[in-house]
């Protein structure tokens, strides 16, 4: 990879000499080639910045979970989530060692929830607030550490795409442990995209999905952040960065469509989004919601920023459990929550 600019420059000189191109044009061509090589190098740096946990400059280090960890009851909530916690392990399809925390529910309960954390967050503590209504209801709770997070192996963050198979794997382990398990997937941010992607695989035992501030696809989210953080257009930097990112994730970003996966879901879905979300653009909510053909409900928190709805709405947990209660009873969920006026 490091030799590509030099190879291109050498070939250009040979071609120019062969066709008798003047030194003036050769100089211009050299400048263009250096510029192209510079863009390629910068694009690779950006891709590593977003996905490579071993990169010295990594976006995870700049993430601020102040609201989550400064929540007054954070320590108490984390302690409740960790009470009786056991460690589960799994080997992913690509050989990575993955870990999850298992908190047992009531002895007679077959209700399960897999809580999927966001980009760069920690598990299980990062999902402590989301876990509280499930704890109160006596559910069994699994909190996986996504690949390249916590004690799970991996160098590159998959942004919810390879993680979809990891979640399906965790579901298989749950069903081996409890053949009567009825499983809900609940994720936030990258975790929200993960649960939609996983549900699109139509795994057995899935009852419902709660997707909080999920993006529509990796490439779309990268494009949004390139504009927001650096003021960059998609072409050419993002297009080149996508090539590197696709290589590390294991597939072209063109096919990593969360919206496409959402269209394949067959169980009820609750879509949650903060109206003031500037990290995952609010319009992505409607794109995912429109794509979903299964029974669905939409919960918009008007004053919430990214991944902040659970802190802004005191009734967040109650509303989630109301939705799941209707699902279990086979009742209609489509008109559960009246949308609040959105002011952007």
Account of the 3D structure:
With 344 residues, the chain is of the alpha/beta class. 44% of the residues lie in helices and 15% in strands. It contains 13 helices and eight strands. It has helices spanning 4-18, 23-51, 66-70, 74-82, 128-136, 163-177, 190-199, 218-230, 234-249, 258-262, 283-291, 309-312, 316-329, and strands at residues 86-91, 97-103, 111-116, 140-144, 182-188, 206-212, 269-274, 296-301. The protein has an eight-stranded mixed beta sheet, with helices on both faces. The longest helix has 29 residues, at 23-51. The model is unreliable at 1-5 (pLDDT under 50).
Question: What are the SSEs and their pairings?
Answer:
Layout: H1 4-18, H2 23-51, H3 66-70, H4 74-82, E1 86-91, E2 97-103, E3 111-116, H5 128-136, E4 140-144, H6 163-177, E5 182-188, H7 190-199, E6 206-212, H8 218-230, H9 234-249, H10 258-262, E7 269-274, H11 283-291, E8 296-301, H12 309-312, H13 316-329
Parallel strand pairs: 3-4, 3-5, 5-6, 6-7, 7-8
Antiparallel strand pairs: 1-2, 2-4
Helix pairs in contact: 1-2, 2-9, 4-5, 5-13, 6-7
């Amino acid at each position: 990879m490091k030799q590509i600019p030099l190879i291109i420059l050498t070939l250009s000189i040979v071609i120019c000499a062969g066709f008798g191109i003047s030194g003036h044009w050769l100089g211009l061509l050299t400048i263009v080639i250096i510029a192209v090589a510079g863009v390629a190098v910068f694009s690779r740096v950006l891709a590593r910045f977003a996905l490579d946990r071993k990169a010295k400059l990594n976006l995870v280090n700049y993430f601020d979970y102040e609201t989550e960890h400064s929540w007054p009851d954070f320590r108490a909530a984390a302690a409740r989530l960790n009470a009786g916690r056991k460690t589960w392990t799994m080997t992913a399809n690509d050989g990575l060692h993955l870990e999850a925390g298992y908190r047992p529910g009531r002895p007679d309960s077959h209700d399960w929830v897999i809580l999927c954390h966001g980009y760069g967050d920690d598990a299980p503590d990062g999902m402590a607030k989301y876990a509280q209504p499930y704890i109160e209801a006596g559910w069994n709770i699994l909190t996986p550490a996504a690949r390249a997070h916590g004690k799970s192996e991996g160098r590159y963050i998959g942004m919810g795409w390879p993680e979809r198979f990891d979640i399906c794997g965790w579901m298989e382990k749950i069903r081996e442990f409890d053949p009567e398990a009825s499983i809900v997937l609940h994720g936030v941010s990258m975790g929200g995209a993960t649960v939609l992607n996983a549900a699109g695989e139509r795994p057995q035992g899935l009852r419902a999905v709660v997707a909080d501030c999920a993006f529509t696809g990796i490439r779309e989210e990268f494009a949004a952040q390139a504009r927001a953080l650096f003021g960059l257009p998609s072409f050419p930097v993002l297009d080149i960065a996508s090539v590197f990112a696709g290589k590390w994730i294991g597939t072209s970003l063109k096919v990593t469509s969360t919206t496409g996966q959402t269209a394949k879901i067959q169980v009820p879905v609750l879509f949650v989004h903060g109206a003031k979300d500037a990290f995952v653009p609010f319009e992505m909510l409607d794109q995912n919601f429109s794509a979903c053909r299964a029974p669905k409900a939409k919960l918009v928190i008007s004053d919430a920023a990214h991944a902040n709805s659970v802190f802004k709405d005191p009734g967040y947990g109650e509303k989630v459990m109301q939705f799941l209660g209707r699902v279990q009873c086979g009742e209609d969920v489509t008109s559960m929550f009246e949308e609040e006026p959105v002011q952007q």
